[in-house]
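It is worth pausing here to work through a concrete case rather than discussing structure prediction in the abstract. The textbook approach is simple: state the sequence, then state the predicted structure, then interpret. We follow exactly that order.
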Amino acid sequence: MLDLLQSSEQGTSGCLKGKKITIITVVYNGAKYLEQAIESVLGQDYPNMEYLVIDGGSTDGSVEIIRKYAAQITSWASEPDEGIYDAMNKGIRMASGDLIGVLNSDDLLHENVISKIAHAADQYPGYDYYYGSVSRMRENGEVYSEAKPVAEEELDERKYKQIPYPHGGLYMRKKVFEKIGLYNLDYTINSDYDLILRMLERNMKGFPLGFAVSRYRDGGVSGGYATFLERLKLLENHGVSRVQRSFTVATSITKLFLSGLLKRAGISYRRREPIRREGGAETERLHG
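Step two, the predicted structure:
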């Protein structure tokens, strides 16, 4: 991967003819951090980029922030929707890029990371999706750890135990959605996990980028135990045995319980990236 990282440091010089990359930000009442998210996209140095912002009918000033940057945003819409994944699906239908990624409205892209992704897609074109890690940051923006994808050699053993890739580090070719469909609205919390499993079950090929794509902000609230009830349904729908799915979910619930104890004791506990949904992209959609 060294050649990819070294070459990508040179900026867009090798990627001027690269494929168009679409970035989708979905938001509902996320004014607190939305402007930072937008600026992290608009500040990228990759020229062949499409930026779509899908708002769910916010009333907190989010729409005014979007309008402020309307001239630099490729396209945006504000209307009621059926939740975060419905908003993502709207963005995917609008997208014209070859690669599509999602940035939550309270998260940030790493500096000039889209050029690096474009370079990877140019150098290694025979892949269906490209995935990296996600930096975890506190509400004040301080980065303190990294959520990494499951190693390729461990996918078969671990893919039904945890989400294999941090959602914010995943960029998929549009043809993936054309082949396997969009986010499944039957899931309100785990549809990103379902989509990844569908890719893996169709033997789609992923390329490990080897670097962090975005920064994921702490401070949100998970779906709690509802996450795990839905996870049982998801695993059943993917053919996982009752024993295995019960053990997997029981283990996750135990970790959630222990994390609560550790938090009350003032000790940090590492959570998986895609569950958190608050402040701009997802909690209010789940509960609204």
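Step three, interpretation. The beta strands are 21-27, 49-55, 75-78, 99-102, 108-109, 129-137, 143-147, 170-173, 206-217. Residues 23 and 51 are 5 Å apart (CA to CA).
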